[in-house]
Amino acid sequence: MIVDEKKYNIIVIEDNLGDFFLLEEYLSEKIKLPTIKHFERFNDFKDSNESLNDCDIIFLDLSLPDKSGTELVEDVLKISNNIPVVVLTGYSDFSFALKAIALGASDYLLKDEINSAMLYKSLVYNIERFKNIIKIKESEQLYNDLFQLSPQPIFVIDATTLQILDVNQACEKLYEFKKEELLNQSIKTIFKDEETIFDNHQTIITQTHQKKNKEKIISEVKYNKIIHNDKEAIIIVSNDITKSIEHLNEIESQNTKLKDIAWIQSHIVRAPLTNILGLIKLINETDSVNDEELLNHLNQSVKELENSINEIVNKTHTM
Amino acid sequence: MKKHIFIIDDDPISIIILKKNLELIAISEEIVTFSNGKDAFNHLEKEYLKNEQYVIFLDINMPEMNGWEFLNKVEHLITSQNTSIYLLTSSINKADMEKAKQFLLIEKYLSKPICKEVLIEIKEKNKL
Description:
heterodimer; A: alpha/beta; Rossmann fold; five-stranded parallel β-sheet; B: alpha/beta
């Protein structure tokens, strides 16, 4: 006979001592050194300060003096978060055994049918299977976190009705809606552009979105088709670019002002100045310092220069 | 061949300076002045002849029709075969200089104040 030499930490919650001893004996037949902790009542189990971390499996009788049935299964499952729970029951409670599985128990054993081989098989099978279930749960949690905790706002919408199927926390934060307020609403509650088409050709679009307080933002949207609960859906990532657009506009308007100033300098300020330079050159070249006409023009140009400088100074004050 | 010299500029002092300089280098052709692009265009539309020669000094910033608008309109009317346009402006703005390059009719971009040496070059080139 093969005896399993691995270490197993087993909890048995069973008020019937006869049943417990039998169970203990069966376990010892297949396992060299099982560590078995026995509780007769639910409260004993609950109040024990035993760490459940080392525990591999729990065998639970379905009727205990202080608790039984659905309530018992639920409460034990709550405490034994990541440990498989195998329920023990008699023929009379068979239908409830199935219910216990539905509630989250890993397996059931009919007491009258238990033998060492069957018990050992159930123990090994449930411990191993539960490890896989935990892995799946962890990966589910990871994917859920990737969606929920993504710093980028994300929507999932129905591909045909455009109804919102899911939103993440960043989405609630950006648009100031609660998730419940958005679920089953059309995406057009937020996406305010006339044409909101999600086809395969264009995957980045700039849109106007509206927050709960009616404030409009500019968003760059990326999307992809996915299957969500067996339905064709679209996952949309929204990137709020309102601030960058505002900065861009501000820079552009300043550039325009600078260009305006360059134009004014060239055409308005430089015009009388070039006249002055031209007149002085003429006076020098023609030796006509006493030419009254030229001197009058010179005088006029200097005044024009002064006026245009004053004008510019006033204009820059208003900028 | 008859030769025409046009000055298109809204600034009377600028016109006087240019005229006096042209006198200094002994240009004898008659000089016709226009205070904006529109007047000059209207004149050319009526009087322009393919077998006569035109030398035009053109300012940019003018009321009614500025230098650019004049160039756009006149492009369809005259050719550089018999017409040399000199953009004569107070502007030293790069944007204006770049824009000037787009017009094939412009012979040269000249910044005011104009100097005699440049005018002598123009005189020789156009055999005035």
